[in-house]
Design goal:
Elements: E1 13-16, E2 21-27, E3 33-41, E4 52-63, E5 88-94, E6 101-107, E7 110-117, E8 124-133, E9 139-149, E10 154-156, E11 159-165, E12 168-175, E13 180-182, H1 185-190, E14 204-208, E15 210-214, E16 223-230, H2 233-245, H3 247-262, H4 274-289, E17 308-310, H5 311-323, H6 327-340, E18 352-354, H7 369-384, H8 387-406, H9 436-455, H10 459-479, E19 481-482, E20 485-486, H11 514-524, H12 550-562, H13 566-578, E21 589-590, E22 596-597, H14 602-616, H15 620-624
Antiparallel strand pairs: 1-2, 2-3, 4-9, 5-6, 6-7, 7-8, 8-16, 9-14, 9-15, 10-11, 11-12, 12-16, 13-14, 17-18, 19-20, 21-22
Helix pairs in contact: 4-14, 5-6, 5-7, 5-14, 6-7, 7-8, 7-9, 8-9, 9-10, 12-13, 12-14
GO molecular function: hydrolase activity, hydrolyzing O-glycosyl compounds
GO biological process, one term: carbohydrate metabolic process
InterPro entries: 6-hairpin_glycosidase_sf, 6hp_glycosidase-like_sf
Length: 625
């Protein structure tokens, strides 16, 4: 069982309703196991919108019949032996694969189960806490929810209010309403001197305390920890009061909303075994959670890129939602991506933008954005059958197609760039290359631009786009295919796993190139010890070692299905599932020592789950055609 969420401080399990985003982890910064609500973001899913102090929120429990506290950090030192046994994480999951996160853990005889969710249409995060015993004995317990705030500006009854900025407020309380104490957590737990309320402009811990009876079978009645955000103090308090009045209904209401939404995409479930049913639903849930309320697709759980709208990842997210049947979210997300687009000096588009400022964030040079944008517009237009999309976005379609036409060098290929992987260029002491990925996605995109042009009567443009697509394809065939093996670029015979997509999801390559390319990739990009597929030859990670990646491994499986080799295809698919966290999140890759990078990247990893399942069921091209 994998519990590696949080082993890297960059990785988190997310919960969101589009308006507010919560991060959860299973390890603290010192790799101590803990059921930790790490951070809350409002109003944008951006690091600048963080509401809590870095230590987040966690739970302590005192069982009157036990010598040992349920104590994540070894803070309580009343009795000898208290620090001995660490917390054991027993289970983590999204309930039924939906957007409600559950963690079960224990220390000694004390079992704690938390569920965390955000009701729809609110700025609220709710965390229920229940206690049971391993031995099945009845007892009484004291539960201590702790939250580390950036400050406390005011207290209204037992609601504590934090002011983060002029338009960011956080209100916190518990149900049942119990007195909170600020200051030293250890003293608040053990009855030492503490403060009921303290106005503080500095980070401060807030500890609540409630007594509960635990039956001999099952769990205690839940207590609820509530967090409500607002752009004003009044909004935050109003959101909190509304949640408090409706607390008995909010879990079932949220579960019902998730189930209703999933009825749209649950069609393939009947054909899947239970394990894959769970992954399917979890992945669909994560795609939905990665969209802000305005439709902006965000990397929701991976710290360095938090708050960025990446064109490639965004297109992957919205087209996957569309393929799964969630057309309204897909269309809204597409329009948001288009809204962010800004032209580079050469006329192409930057490929990453900060969601708060809209400012481009570019650290490599990639020319695939226009092809991807054309694919994304075509995909969602084709699935929605809404001609208004093409009419609305025709200036973007025309500009993207013209950029592809005008930006080929003497080889006929798209100008040299960094390809799909951001790992080439002067910034890394690597020369740019005429990358197969860039020219291939440009061919696919401009072919789809031709179809869209015809649909609104632009026949001259349609014919021109078709001509250019053929020319670029012929340049790929001449320069980037060596003895029927599709290689990374014109400049090298090294391999790049992204070329596999042009046999499957973006089918422009002839089948006679498939088996020779598969054979070489299996020989040269398959990890000899771990299985799985590397991104491309000559690549090392930030950790300095070659490692298989989730996306290329899914692509290899899809290509093997195309080659009628299903058993080997599922060997590759299952490699990815074996690397997933217990709750069903897939990493971008696993570093050495099984440390995950990139948990909760729906565009890259969880989209791969959905697209590969559709491909394995033979539904991918049926949906598209």
């Amino acid at each position: 069982m994998h519990y590696f969420i949080g082993e890297s401080p960059n990785n988190h399990a997310p919960i969101s309703n589009g308006r507010i985003l919560t991060w959860l982890k299973q390890y603290d910064e010192e790799f101590i196991p803990v059921d930790l609500l790490s951070q809350i973001f409002f109003p944008d899913f951006d690091l600048m919108s963080a509401l809590l102090h870095d230590k987040g929120s966690y739970v302590f429990v005192k069982d009157e019949k036990e010598k040992i506290w349920y104590d994540p950090y070894g803070i309580v030192k009343q009795k000898l032996g208290q620090v001995g046994e660490i917390i054991s994480l027993d289970n983590t999951r999204y309930v039924d694969g939906l957007g409600i996160y559950e963690v079960t853990s224990h220390k000694g005889n004390t079992v704690v189960k938390t569920k965390t969710w955000s009701p729809w249409g609110s700025n609220v995060v709710i965390r229920s806490i229940q206690v049971s015993t391993l031995k099945g004995n009845a007892t009484n317990v004291e539960i201590f929810p702790v939250v580390n705030l950036k400050n406390i500006s005011e207290r209204i009854d037992n609601i504590f209010i934090s002011r983060i900025s002029c338009c960011q407020w956080l209100a916190v309380t518990t149900i049942p309403s119990i007195e909170g104490k600020t200051g030293d957590v250890g003293k608040a737990l053990t009855g030492g001197a503490s403060t009921v309320f303290e106005h503080s402009s500095l980070p401060i811990a807030l500890t609540f305390n409630v007594k509960k009876s635990v039956p001999d079978k099952g769990y205690s009645a839940p207590i609820y920890q509530l967090f409500a955000a607002g752009k004003t103090k009044e909004e935050a308090v109003s959101q909190l009061n509304c949640a408090m009045r409706n607390i008995d209904n909010l879990y079932e209401d949220t579960l019902s909303e998730w189930k209703k939404w999933h009825t749209i995409s649950d069609g393939p479930l009947a054909k899947l075994p239970p394990k894959l049913q769970y992954y399917w639903r979890t992945s669909n849930s994560l795609l939905r959670m990665s969209l802000q309320e305005d439709g902006s697709p965000i990397l929701i759980g991976f710290r360095p890129y938090q708050g960025n709208v990446w064109v490639r990842d965004g297109i992957w997210i919205v087209t996957t939602l569309a393929l799964a049947g969630h057309l309204e979210e897909a269309k809204k997300g597409l329009y948001r991506i288009i809204n962010f687009l800004k032209e580079r000096p050469d006329g192409n588009y930057y490929f990453a933008y900060n969601v708060t400022t809209g400012v481009p964030n570019e650290h490599a040079f990639e020319n695939d954005t226009t092809g991807l944008v054309l694919y994304g517009i075509w995909n969602i237009w084709h699935l929605t059958k809404e001609d208004k999309i093409v009419k609305d976005l025709w200036p973007i379609i025309e500009h993207s197609a013209n950029w592809i036409i005008d930006n080929r060098d003497e080889t006929g290929l798209i100008n040299k760039d960094a390809g799909i992987w951001e790992t080439f260029g002067p910034h890394l002491n690597e020369p740019f290359e005429n990358m197969t990925w860039t020219s291939g996605i440009s061919v696919y995109g401009i072919v789809k631009a031709s179809l869209m042009a015809r649909s609104i009567g632009h026949l001259v443009e349609a014919v021109n786009y078709e001509r250019v697509a053929v020319e670029i394809f012929m340049a790929i065939e001449k320069n980037n295919v060596k003895e029927s093996v599709v290689v990374r670029s014109k400049q090298t015979a090294l391999l790049d796993s992204s070329v596999l997509l042009f046999f499957t999801e973006f089918p422009i390559f002839p089948k006679q190139w498939l088996n020779p390319t598969l054979q070489e990739i299996d020989n040269r990009l398959r990890d000899p010890l771990l299985g799985g597929i590397w991104r491309h030859e000559s690549l090392t990670t930030e950790e300095g070692d070659m490692r298989p990646w989730t996306g290329p491994t899914f692509w290899m499986g899809e290509a093997l299905l195309t080659a009628s080799r299903p058993q080997l295809a599922w060997d590759y698919f299952n490699h990815n599932y074996r690397n997933s966290a217990f709750c069903g999140l897939l990493p971008e890759l696993m570093y050495s020592k099984d440390r995950a990078r990139g948990i909760a990247m729906p565009g890259y990893s969880q989209s791969g789950v959905i697209r590969s399942i559709l491909y394995a069921l033979g539904l991918f091209h049926k949906i598209k055609l």
